[in-house]
């Protein structure tokens, strides 16, 4: 589901996202994520993405429109004035039941609230539609679940400063400034300069993220920098520790993304039918598997990991983020009590892979 680097970057989207320099005076374009032309540089060369709206600030006249083009897996959420964004996950009203590990033992979270994607983010969404906004009621795009979702056009009918959010990535936000008729607004050329400057700054940040090292005893699940820039990898990618070592797998402070750190059978990117592959697939399905979402073990005492944990060497932090506004954890700890080579993946971004060798 939340494959930030791989999602909705098709050629059709590129045709729609020419950027502010191509927009008319009455309609400006905002990319919901990196502009398509910049994605190869960030994704392939820097292993990164940017959880940001491009441009972050858009200024128009009252009665003008902003065209939101989905260039990554993001939403836009304009709450009613003073409101907060919607959470990505929310309780379904049911309890988890019958959730067993590979050894047939019930997981600890049986009886806990089942969670799913917040219903307002699901279909039908607003893609391909034109709507109006004046700050009095929420306008929510929904998730871009189609391969080539069309743009959404929002017409602003009241002057003001309107902050909007991405519900997938806590902390990702943009601003639309709506001025009265006759007031000066930036030209298309000025908007293009703003966009280019935002991209240059993001590229400079991304270039330095993969070389940063976390403190001893810590594995960073991704790395982040200002402006929503995210590196998609484990840091360190590979390390060797002694039996009995405890490692903390944590979100990078300041990250806008969501990740897991998960060990178990299979490569979820290359082996979709494996144990981890099937868990990863739940993030692209309407119903979430609680085994993927919840931590595999209560946080205390610190869980241990061996090749036979939960019957198949399974351990999972559950879904993590770095936001204080959600109930999700920001880290998980595990003690390695048996020698071996342990492969870790993010179930949400299965191309993220790290290795811990225990001797």
TrEMBL record:
Keyword set includes Signal: yes
The protein's organism comes out as Capillimicrobium parvum
- InterPro entries, A to Z: Cupredoxin (IPR008972), ET_Amicyanin (IPR052721)
Q: What is this protein called?
A: Blue (type 1) copper domain-containing protein
Q: Where is the signal peptide?
A: 1-23
The alphabetical list of record keywords is:
Signal
- Hydrolase recorded as keyword: no
